[in-house]
User: Fold these one by one.
Assistant:
Number 1:
Amino acid sequence: MSVIEIVGGKQLNGEVNIQGSKNAVLPILAATVLVNGITKLNHCPKILDVFHMIKILESIGCAVVWEGSTIIVDSTKLSTSTIPEDLVKKMRSSIIMMGAMLGRMGSVVITFPGGCTIGARPIDYHLSAFKKMNISIEEKDGLIYCSTTCINGTDIYLKFPSVGATENIILAAVLANGKTRIYNAAREPEIKELCNFLNASGADIAGVGTDNLEINGVSSLHHVIYTVESDRIVAGTYLAAVAGTGGKATMNGVDCNSQQSVIQVLEDMGCNIKCGMNSITIESSGKLKPVSVIRTMPYPGFPTDMQSQMMSVLMKSSGVSRIIEDIFEGRYQNVREQLKFGANIEILGREAIVEGVSRLHGSEVYASELRGGAALVIAGLMAEGKTVLHNPVYIERGYEDICRDLSCLGADINYIS
Ligand code: UD1
C-alpha cells in the first residue's frame, strides 16, 4: 500500500505553478457531450476524478485523448444513455452527467449516488428542477430513470445555492425549448467557468457570475478550444501550508479575486499576502494568531473545501479559534486524525473549538477524504518529526502531485509506493 512520508518542521519557500481546477473541469467535461463534436480543453489536471470522468465519457461512446495537459473529447457518436454503476459510485460528482445527457439524448439512467464521508449529499434540488423542466423521473432499485420528449425552459428557485444543482440545471437548459431562469443560483467561480465555456460554444447564458442566471435555449453548440482556470482550492491549500510552517512562497496562475475569503482569514492570523496580476504571494512567520470565527458558506463566503486545511493551521496558533461548518456535516470526521498530532480540538455539533498548542508531533494518520487528507499533510509539515499518511489515493482525487508541489517549496515529503 502507498503512503506519504513527511518530516515536518521545515519552512516553505519558493514558487509553484497551480494545476487546473478540478471543480471547473468536471462539469465542463460533462458539457462536452452537448457539443456533439470535438472539444479541446487546455490546462486540465491529471487527477483521479478527471480520469473517472473520462472513463464515464468513454463508457457512453465518446473518444477521449490526452495531449500533455490538454484533453480532446469527440462526442459525435454516443452509444448509450446509461452511466455504468461502478463509475458513478466511484465519484459522486458524476451526477452532473444527468443534465448533459438529458440535453443531448433526452434520457439518462444513473445510479443513485448516495452519501459519502463528508455528508449525506442528497440530490433533491436537482431532481425537483428536472421535473419542472418536463423531465420524468422514476426511481427503481437504486437507479434513476430520467427521460423527456422535450426539455422546457422554466423558472427555478433553489432553496439553497447548490453548486451541483445549478450546474445540472444549466446543462439541461442550454439546448432546451425556451428560457430557463435560475434564482438563487450558486455563484462559485466554477459555475462562471461552465457558463463561459458554454457561451464560447454557442450557448446563450446571461447573468454569468450572479445568482440570477437566464439561459435561452439554442438549437446546437459548436466546436471550441477552452483553457481551464487554476484550482483555487489547491492554491488555498498551499497558502495554508506556508502559513502553518512559516516562509515565503508564490502561487502562480491564481486569480486573487476568487481567494478573498481565504486571504482575509490568513491576514487575520498575521500572514502578509500580496496579490500579483496572476499570482498570490504569502509570507508567514509561522507564529499565528487565532481567529474569532470561520464559518463555511456558499461563494463568496469561506469555502467548505478549505475548512479542514485551515483547522490544521489553527492547531498551532496562539489562542482559541471557532469554526462553524455549515455546508457538509461530515467534514469533522477528519478531526479524529488531526488530534493524533497532539492538537486540542473540541467538536460541538457543527462547531469546532480549536485551542492552539505550542508543538505538534508527527504521527501515523489515515486519510478518508480529499480535503481532509490535504489537511493531514499540512499538519504533518507543521509537526516535529515524521508523519506517515495512509490512503493517499483520496488526495490524488484532487491534487495532481501534492508531494511534487510541496517538495518544490522545500518540504521533506515523499510518496512511497
Ligand atoms: C460542490 C463541489 C464541492 C464543494 C461543494 C460546496 C464539485 C465537483 N464539488 O459539491 O467540492 O465542497 O460544491 O461548495 O464541484 N444539497 C441538498 N440537496 C441537493 C443538493 C445539495 O440538500 O439537491 C445540500 C448538500 O447536502 C450540502 C449543500 O447543499 O449541504 C451544498 O451542496 P452542493 O453545493 O450541491 O455541493 P456539490 O455540488 O455536491
Number 2:
Amino acid sequence: MSAILQIKGVSKSFGGIIANQSITLSVANKQITGLIGPNGSGKTTLFNSICGTHPIDEGSINFNGKEVSTLPIPAVAKLGLLRTFQQTHIYGKLNCIQNMLISAKPKSDNLFSIFSKIPLDLNNEAEHILEFVGLYQKRFLRAGDLSFGQQKLLELAMALMNKPKMLLLDEPTAGINPTLINGIIDRLIKVNEEYGITLLIIEHNMKVIMNLAEEIFCLTHGKLIAQGTPKEIKNDQKVIDAYLGK
Ligand code: ADP
Ligand code: MG
C-alpha cells in the first residue's frame, strides 16, 4: 500500500513544552488510520503541523508527493488535505445549506455574493451530501440548533463539499450521545469506501478506533511509542502502560 502522507522527524515545541518530538510515520493511501494517546500527548499538535496551522521546528511533511510543512492552511487545503476539530467550527446562525455553501466557496467571497447567486449544481451537491450524512431533513435549520453530534456530522459534510483526498478527524465521537456514535462510525466507513477518502482519526474511544482503523499509531509525551494493527496495539505493553492500562 502506498503512503499518501509521510511525516519525517517532525518536532514542535511551545516555549519549554515539547509537544511533538522527532515523529516519523506514514499513512497509507485510502485507508483508515488511528492516532491515539493520553491527553496532552501531542495528537492535536501533530494535526496542526500537518494542516499548516503553525510552522514546525524541524522535519518534513510530504502529502501526495508535495512538501507541505512550509505551506499555510489554504494552500494545504487546496492540495486536498482537510481537517475537522475537537470543538466544531460551524456558523451557528446560518442554516445547514448555507454552512455547506460557505465551506465550498473561497473565503474571500462575501456572504451576500455567495447567497445571491448560488449555482444550482452547488446547491444540489450540498443537498446530496447532507442526505449522505443524514441531515437532509434538517437542511433549513440553524446549525446552532442542531445537537452536538449533528453539528459534527455537518462539519464532516462541509469538509466533503471540498472533495478532499484526505481528512484528519479530531475526536469525531467525543461528547456525542452513544446512540449516535454508531451512525458516525457508519458514515466514516462510507466516506472512506464510497468517496475513497483517506482518514486519519484521533479517537479516545478504543472500541470505535479498533473497529475503524486498519493501522494505529500511539503517542505519549510527544513521542511515537507504537504502531501496528488494532490487535497489535491492544497487546503492546508500552501502549498498555502509557495509555490503555489506566
Ligand atoms: P493532545 O491533542 O494529545 O491532547 P496537544 O497536542 O493538544 O495534545 O498538546 C500537547 C502539548 O502541547 C500539551 O502540553 C499542550 O498544553 C501543549 N500545547 C498545544 N498547543 C499549544 C499552544 N498553542 N501553545 C502552548 N502550548 C500548547
Ligand atoms: Mg487534542
